[in-house]
C-alpha cells in the first residue's frame, strides 16, 4: 500500500474502482492535501464546489470522489459540515494532469447555524478566492431524490443558490440527485422528471446539466468532468457583487433573498405563537397547558433569533438609496425560480 509523509490527511486508495483503474502503486490518492485557507488555492486549480441543503450528501460525495469513504460525512440527523472545507486532489485519470480542489460547504437549514451564518461562510470563501482571481470551474448542486416534496427548505435553498450563482455561471452547474437507493426507481424517475420540468427548468434553459450520483467514485468523477468540460470559467453573481462592486453581503441578490425569507419566517412564527397562546388560554388540562407554554417559549426564543438575523441583513436606508442611483451593475443577472 502506498504511504505518504507529506500531510496527516493523506490516505491510501481504498475504493475497488480506483484499485482497478490505477496501477497498484499509483501515487494518485496519496497526494491529497487539505487546504486550510481560501488563500491556499492556486489559479491553476480546478475548483469544484459542492452545494445544496444540509444532509443531501455533499461531504459523502467528496469522501467517495477522494477515496476516503465516510470520513467527513455525517451519520446523524444533525448538520455536520460547519465550515467551508477544501481538499486538493489529482484526477483519477493519470492522463489528466490538472489538480482538482473539491470544496465542501455547509448546507442551509443547518441545525447549528443560522442561514445568515451559512451564507456568510460560503460568501467569505468565494470572495477570498475570487480576489486571488481564482474562479470556480464547476458547482455540483445536490438534491435528495428521497425528499417527497419540493417545498419549504429544498425550494428555499434552490432559490438562494440561483441568486448566488447568477446566469453567467450556469453552464458550470450540474444539478445532481442523491440517495437513489432510498426510493423505488419509478418514484425517483417521476420526481426527477418534475424537477427538470419545473424547479430546475430555468437553470437547465441556461445551460446547466443534471445527473444522478450513484454513490461511487466513477459516478462522482463523471459528474465533475461533465461540469468542468472545456468551458470558460466565469464568476458567480455573488462574487461579482462582493468583489467587483464592493457590496455588502446584505446588498447582494442572495442576501436580499435571505432577507425576504426571514421576513416570511417571522410572519409564520408569529402566527404559530398566536395560535398556541389561544389554545393555552382555552385549555383546562394543566399538563397540556404546561406543554403548550413550553412550546410557546421555545418559539419566542426562535422568533427573537430570527429578528436578530433580520437586523443583520437589513440594508440601511442611505445605502439602499445610493444603490438605487448607482450605475455599476453586475454582468450576471439573478435567476428566478
Ligand atoms: N443512501 C445514500 N445515503 C447517502 C448519500 N449521500 C449521503 N448519504 C447519507 O446521508 C447522511 C448525510 O450525508 P452528508 O454527506 O453528511 O450530507 P451533507 O450534505 O454534507 O450535510 P451537511 O454537512 O449537514 O450540510 C449521511 O448519513 C450519509 O451517509 C447517498 O447518495 N445515498
Ligand atoms: Mg457536509
Task: Provide a descriptive summary of the structure in words.
By secondary structure, the protein is an alpha/beta fold. The protein folds into two domains: 229 residues, Rossmann fold, CATH 3.40.50.300; 66 residues. Helix content is 45%, strand content 12%. It has eleven helices and seven strands. The protein has a seven-stranded mixed sheet, covered by helices on one side. Helix 4 links the parallel strand 5 and strand 6. The site of guanosine-5'-triphosphate (GTP) has 21 residues, from helix 2. This is P-loop containing nucleoside triphosphate hydrolase protein. Keywords: Coiled coil, Hydrolase.
For this entry, give a set of tags:
single chain; about 325 residues; alpha/beta; Rossmann fold; 2 domains; 7-stranded mixed β-sheet; 7 strands; about 45% helix; globular; binds guanosine-5'-triphosphate; binds magnesium ion
Short description:
This protein is α/β, with parallel strands linked by helices. The protein has helices at residues 16-21, 58-65, 115-131, 152-165, 185-199, 201-205, 217-228, 237-244, 253-282, 286-313, 317-324; strands at residues 33-35, 46-51, 85-90, 99-104, 136-144, 173-178, 209-212. One of its GO terms (molecular function) is hydrolase activity.
The count of helical stretches stands at 11
The coarse overall form would be globular
Radius of gyration from CA coordinates: 22 Å
User: The CATH topology of the largest domain is what?
Assistant: Rossmann fold
Strand order of the largest sheet: 1-3-4-2-5-6-7
Spell the H/E element sequence: HEEHEEHEHEHHEHHHHH
**First-residue to last-residue Cα separation:** 49 Å
- What ligands does this structure carry? guanosine-5'-triphosphate, magnesium ion
- Describe the sheet with the most strands: 7 strands, mixed
Number of domains: 2
CATH superfamily of the largest domain: P-loop containing nucleotide triphosphate hydrolases
Strand residues, percent: 5-15%
| CATH architectural type of the largest domain | 3-Layer(aba) Sandwich
Provide the structure class.
alpha/beta
Question: Total number of β-strand segments?
Answer: 7
Overall pLDDT, averaged? 85
**Low-confidence spans: pLDDT under 50, at least 5 residues?**
1-27
Q: Quick one: CATH class of the largest domain?
A: Alpha Beta
Helix content: 40-55%
